[in-house]
Amino acid sequence: MSDPARIADDPRFAELRGAYRRFVFPVTVAFLVWFLTYVVCSAYARGFMAHKVAGNVNVALVFGLLQFVSTFGIAAAYARFAGRRLDPLAAALRTSAEAAAPVAAAPAAPTTDIRLIEESV
Fold it and tell me: Could you list the residue ranges that cross the membrane (predicted)?
């Protein structure tokens, strides 16, 4: 059985995929809803989006800046989640795959005849 097939049959791989999906799918849906709310409000709720919050800062500007904040927040949350939950599972799978893989001979180091280089110069 090849390495990819052996890894795909490992229950830890199914656990890894499940953990990934349980984080990524809900967060993606939540972000898309948040983004589409911003877009729809910008197109159809112009009065609401033009409402001044402080000085010349309006709701549209705040929502736009919050898009960046939420993006960086999601990236930070994913990095933390992956470090705690996904990386240990992936490392265990990698270790078992490397232990089960046949040891391949290292390729020979390329040799260069210095005389050929000197003659061509």
Answer: 23-45, 57-79
